[in-house]
Amino acid sequence: MATQQPATRPANPRFSSGPCAKPPTFELSKLADAPLGRSHRAAIGKAKLKDAIEGTREILGIPADYRIGIVPASDTGAVEMALWSLLGERKVEMLAWESFGAGWVSDVVKQLKIDAEVKTADYGQIVDLASVDCNNDVVFTWNGTTAGVRVPNADWIADDREGLTICDATSAAFAMDLPWDKLDVTTFSWQKVLGGEAAHGVIVLSPRAVARLESYTPAWPLPKIFRMTKGGKLIEGIFTGATINTPSMLAVEDYLFALDWARSVGGLKGMIARADANAQAVFDFCDANDWISNLAEDDATRSNTSVCLKFTDARIQDGAAFAKAVAKRLEAENIALDIGAYRDAPAGLRIWCGGTVETADIEAMLPWLAWAFEAEIKAQA
Ligand SMILES: Cc1ncc(COP(=O)(O)O)c(C=O)c1O
Fold first, then answer.
1. How far is the CA of 161 from the centre of ligand 1 (A)?
2. Which residues share a beta bridge with 138?
3. Mutate to test the pocket of ligand 1, among 140, 171, 194 (most ligand atoms within 8 A of CB)
4. Where are the beta strands (DSSP E) in 142-219?
5. Which atom of ligand 1 is nearest to the CA of 76?
């Protein structure tokens, strides 16, 4: 068993699930072109914001008739503005199998007081997608970041649905194929798969979502920060770069840099391949070691970004303390930073495998995980 420290160290120990590792070629000096100290409504600021929108469309393959907006408050802001602006017109189904999905359930049921049908599954499992009726509005998370469980596909979303699908795709966008024809509202933030900066969110609206916005007014008041319509019409400016309020032009420059980097590794296809290779290295490690396994019970739902692991060794006395100690040991050695399971999730580890992480770093880190495991088993005794 691996009691000796492995010889090779990851060049980059950053495996956090958000903010995620910057692209490997990142340097602060590469953001020197940011129009700092200028108005975001000046021609240069508007042009950068438009580039960010159109670059997103190009790389993610978003149809020309879908609107893409840069909005405040990161992914949370984007999801909240969708929930508060669109729901209440018809019956709602809320799907959740981890912490963030559960948060959206709580918002809809407790804050908006909508009598939604709530379908939940435990960490590691997923709800019965075949039971979902897409004539209702359906809110779900493409990849449950805190469980490492993702929807296996979108076959359960009917093409001729009458409801809207509202999808939190923050840890999926740029790592998984998102079928735009099945998604009416899609949200993500820059700080996840692209390793961008926090605080800015992206909302993608299908023509049907826009039609709902223009034809339906919720019964509750909407703060300015959530408002996408004026006088019953979509505020088109939001979707061409005239943001609702002031964005950070440094964060925009950083996003443009990340988009360029994504192009350089083959765009979406390349990004998916990178995440797949990273996740596969972790899956193979689990297959080769009987003391650790994927939290996702069904292989078809295993995430290729937020890979969540649980320790399964019968010798472990206190699961939570053990997992924490392993993560701490790896952090102390500067081998893996921020890989403890999410605070609401079952005890274990979560290793970010999105495309900004290098496979060589995952491969260098895993033998250290075996080393830390052995060391903690000994320390317990
Ligand atoms: C699925 C999911 N939704 C929402 C969020 C919140 O994201 P943000 O902090 O960017 O608003 C996260 C963050 O990890 C997430 O994983």
1. 27
2. 93, 165
3. 171
4. 143-144, 149-150, 165-168, 185-189, 200-205
5. 11
Ligand 1 centroid to residue 174 C-alpha, Å: 15
Q: How far is CA 40 from each of CA 57, 149, 279, rounded to the nearest angstrom?
A: 21, 38, 38
Atom 7 of ligand 1: nearest residue by CA position = 75
Cα(129) to ligand 1 centroid in Å equals: 22
**What sign for the dihedral angle of Cα 289, 142, 112, 117?**
negative
Is the pTM of the predicted complex or chain greater than 0.90? yes
- How crowded is the C-beta side of 97, counted as CA atoms within 13 Å? 25
pLDDT digits (tens, 9 = 90+) for 100-156: 999 999 999 999 999 999 999 999 999 999 999 999 999 999 999 999 999 999 999
- Ligand 1 — pocket residues by CB below 6 A? 18, 74-76, 100, 141, 145, 168, 170-171, 189, 191, 198
pLDDT tens for each residue of 320-359: 999 999 999 999 999 999 999 999 999 999 999 999 999 9
Atom of ligand 1 nearest to the CA of 144: 1
DSSP-derived 3-state class of residue 168: strand
- Cα 365 to Cα 159: distance, rounded to the nearest angstrom: 43
One-letter amino acid for residue 198 of the chain: A
* Site of tokens 């492995």: 6
User: What does the pLDDT look like over 251-309, one tens digit per residue?
Assistant: 999 999 999 999 999 999 999 999 999 999 999 999 999 999 999 999 999 999 999 99
CA of 350 to the centre of ligand 1 (A): 15
CA 243 to ligand 1 center in whole angstroms: 21
CA distances from 12 to 24, 301, 361 (A): 9, 28, 6
